[in-house]
Amino acid sequence: MTETPLTALALTCSLKPSPEPSSTDKLARQVLDELAAHGVRGDLVRVVDHDVRPGVEKDMGGGDEWPAIRERVLAADILVLATPTWVGHPSSVAQRVMERLDAELSETDDQGRLLTYGKVAVVAVVGNEDGAHKIIADCFQALDDVGFTIPASGGTYWNNEAMTPKDYIELERTPDPVASTNKKLAANAAHLARLLKQERYPPVG
Predict the structure, then answer these.
(1) Please, are residues 7 and 77 in contact by the beta-carbon 8 Å criterion?
(2) Does the residue 1 lie in any domain?
(3) Domain range spanning residue 118?
(4) Dihedral sign of CA atoms 25, 27, 32, 33 in order
């Protein structure tokens, strides 16, 4: 089973455009590195660098860059949705990504399955305020609604000590609990993605 080639795409939803350093990118890249240890080839897109229009359609027109990102999401076996914490919630960029994924509810194959069926999704959250558990729960629900499958231990996060302004990118080393959680997430996500690639969900209806 371990020989089955897999790919992952990380959508990082930082509010900071490139090339500004991003804690969200850092954690997402760490997850991709752990996935690589399981034979998963990964890539990263910082969504704020692209003109992703508001809406719930596949293509909102007028130069909307979501269709190209969507193609990469559908081509990948594993989606890593990474977001910072802003006032206890996912970033507005992450919210827009989830809204655009809503269009997948109208897209099915010839056997009635959503095109996202058989794809695994995990969530990574960083922030110097509380809220990661709630954000992960909200993202899991949205991703499940549009057809992704969530593995066991499919969320990882880092929150700084309360009332202490420090970012993840400023840490000299990755805290052991975060590193071990990243490893567990990657192992379970790769395992589940291989199972789903070899044994598809049944036809609908």
Answers:
(1) yes
(2) no
(3) 6-198
(4) positive
* Beta bridge pairs of residue 85: 90
> Which residue, 40, 65, 87, 12, is CA-closest to 197?
40
- Answer whether 171's CB lies under 8 Å from 23's CB: no
Tell me: the pLDDT tens digits for 41-53? 999 999 999 999 9
CATH number at residue 175: 3.40.50.360
Residue 163 contacts by C-beta under 8 Å, 6 or more apart in sequence?
A: none
> For residue 112, is pLDDT > 70?
yes
pLDDT, one tens digit per residue, over 11-45 is: 999 999 999 999 999 999 999 999 999 999 999 99
On whether residue 205 sits in a domain, the answer given is no
| 146 token code pair | 């549009």
69 to 9, 168, 201: CA distances (angstroms): 10, 26, 24
Rounded Cα distance, 124 and 12, in Å = 9
